[in-house]
Amino acid sequence: MTNVVITGTGLYTPEHAIDNAALVSAFNTWVDNENARFAEEILRGERVPLAHSSSEFIEKASGIKSRYVLDAAGILDPERMRPQLPVRLNDEPSIQCDMATAAARQALENAQVAPEDIELVIVACSNLERAYPAVAVEVQQALGAGGYGFDMNVACSSATFALETAANAIASGSVKRALVINPEICSAHLNFQDRDSHFIFGDACTAVVLENSAVAVACERFEILGTRLVTQFSNAIRNNAGFLNRVTDSDPLAIDKLFVQEGRRVFKEVCPLVAKLISEHLASLELSGSDLKKMWLHQANRHMNDLIARKVLGFEPSETQAPIILDRYANTSSAGSIIAFHLHRDGLEEGDIGVICSFGAGYSVGSVVVRRQ
User: Fold this and answer.
1) Are 5 and 113 in contact (CB under 8 A)?
2) Is 205 a catalytic residue?
3) The pTM is what?
């Protein structure tokens, strides 16, 4: 039987960081400007005045203190309130390709794998910057990888779904080595004029090398004991941007063309779904929550992670057992659980077991149980 192991990870972190105070200052300036612009309507009761945000509100609601973004100036400009990224010519590397190759090279170096030995490249993320050609094929060429590549999107669960796809390809014998990359530019789909969500997302890119254990040479290896995925349709998290917008004559700048969610509903519906999947997945492997040394959970909301970990473990998790990175990275969609795995796996001994778990729009949930070799 073919054993599949994770042998290397990489992380690209943008240079620009925005803390809550700076984000709130820009947002509140925009709010004041809007309230002044519509002062007469507000006075007549025809319009409800916009409310200020605050660092305290953000941290209490989410646990987020800061975030990394590709461009801070555009986001913090009250007249713009969105990133400003340069247009790339067709013969230039795409933005996501640059992010992907940076993370991928780090992962390849950690795995001691040459790019040409990679036979499968999957670029999996919430938003791809174009429909085609596939970013994965562009990344494949930029790295000098062999085999084939393709893009996939399962929103915040894109990474775990791609890990299962890559692991299955290796287990079946069709490839020996695969590379899963998650270039998330979440700041581009976030409505920075919405008080309830303007703080949620950040940008980052992660990469994971998977190999047939028979060919792996890295000292640090995590055997994939099993994967489990589930989807359940919901409109509670939605983004209606798409190529049909121009033919349906819908407003390309309408609010629904950006990230929209019903936060309380998501919390109520997703947490039990995730805890149930992880617990059932562990049971199928003759394991339980007490066997877990680490839970690398999707980094969307501190309260969600704490609740899910408590349900699975049966007790309050420690900072080391269920590490949090969203305080400084915010929600980086599919990259979040992989960032946690990348930054917080030191100290695990041979035989220690952990779970990489994602959850998000769809709804989609992915569980990858691994054991330190």
Assistant:
1) no
2) no
3) 0.96
